[in-house]
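[job 4471] stage=fold_predict status=RUNNING
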Amino acid sequence: MPGMIANALVPIFFGLSLGYFSGRCGIVDNKNVVGLNTFLLSYALPAALFLSTAQTPRQMLAYHGKLFGILALSMILMFALALVIELKLFKFTLADSAAVTLSVALPNWVAVGLPLFIGLYGPQSTAPVAVAIVCGNIVAAPMSLLLLEAGGVQSRSAGVLRRFGVGIWRTLTKPVVLGPILGVGFSLTGYALPSVLVRSLGFFSQTAAGVALFVTGLVLSRESVSLGINVSGGLVLKLIIQPLLTLVLATVLKYPAQVVRDAVLLMACPSGFLGVLFGVAYNARSLEAGSLLLLSSTLSALTLSLVILLLPFIR
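[job 4471] inference complete, writing structure tokens
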């Protein structure tokens, strides 16, 4: 078991550290990561997710539907809980609350979930991560976008609804979302992918995990840290409460053990960086979101190790 944990986690934190120190030392510009991020989200990751889902047997799609459902329910409940805390306890504005809440509710499946599943189960096991990424882009990201739009001082109700609709459309048409959706469609046909297509996309897909880790490390290297009550509470919600909530929900719904294990492992991943990016884009609170991103990524070395140790006991 220690060897399995090391194989899964050491490459992740090596990649994060490489990006972090490259940014901190000025070896790579950590202020402008647009080019790397575009390559990752428009080419490498969509190729990896398409291949993963397209090569998934049709009979496994029902399993993935259950996984999608439990991930969506867990994110919605955690989003609602964190939002109430930010609004009522800390008296944040709606827009500021949205940036922090998204960091609590949406895990970093792109940079951590993908290499984590590869390290634990092998390169052909990333279909659950593809399901999770689509779920996050369809469920959590639009909810945060709606709050950010509604919290803008210049917003009007009609404008909010229109921009929310445009935001959802843009989300659903992004390559990182279209890749696994098209892969599911191809899987339903029952045909095998042409070998030349598998090899061609494979060149890009093999770089996805490494580039995702490096880019996340670069983003972390430019973030400030504020460890107040708000951030500390967010860390507890993200790294402890959310995996436990997912475990309880999936157990109560009597889902298969492997669905429960995958869901808990996915929800144990640290905070994603959309909260930071949305906060910057909408001039909303990003210090707390950045702190959650940096600290949860660091502490997840311990929490993910614990989760991996406990996975065999989930029956």
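[job 4471] summary: The radius of gyration is 19 Å.
[job 4471] exit 0
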